[in-house]
Write a structure and sequence with these properties.
149 residues; alpha+beta; three-stranded antiparallel sheet; two-stranded antiparallel ribbon; 45% helix; binds zinc ion
């Protein structure tokens, strides 16, 4: 017979409970489980609950697959304009000076600071570098069919 835990073929297996699941295992693996005996199952609240417990565990594992498609993406912060303006003023730079450093016209800097112009990724990266600020934040996105947005 084969041990249901380690897969070894042995002369005889013992029936034990491992992780609330009854298994026929070899003597070595039996040490990891609780021996079954009349009363043991009842003490562990098993009997009728075994099937239900296994189904529950499968559902849990199934839902884990959904979360495995979860990933982190970098998104522009909502208050990027305020962050840019505050950092620029802290440096004592005019919008024109900052524009020169990030290779953008002064009016683009003004519009970015007012929040009406989203900087491109490249511009935002230059802003981060020149101003020593963070304009991106890691956002957890879940790529599933049920995704709300
Ligand atoms: Zn074994």
């Amino acid at each position: 017979v084969q041990c249901e835990m380690c897969g070894q073929t042995v002369a005889a297996t013992r029936r034990v409970i491992i992780d609330r699941t009854p298994l026929n295992v070899c003597n070595i693996c039996a040490k990891f489980g609780t021996p079954t005996s009349p009363g043991t199952a009842a003490r562990l609240g098993m009997t009728a609950n075994v099937a239900e417990g296994l189904a529950r565990r499968e559902r849990r594992m199934g839902s884990k697959d959904v979360y495995s498609s979860e990933r982190m993406t970098l998104e522009l912060v909502d208050d990027y304009g305020a962050r840019i303006q505050k950092a620029r003023e802290a440096k004592g730079w005019t919008r024109q000076e900052l524009g020169g450093r990030i290779k953008e016209p002064e009016n683009a800097v003004a519009r970015m600071e007012s929040g009406s112009l989203h900087p491109t990724d490249a511009v935002a990266q230059r802003l981060e570098k020149e101003l020593g600020i963070k304009l991106f934040e890691a956002v957890k996105t879940i790529a599933t069919a049920r995704k709300a947005r």
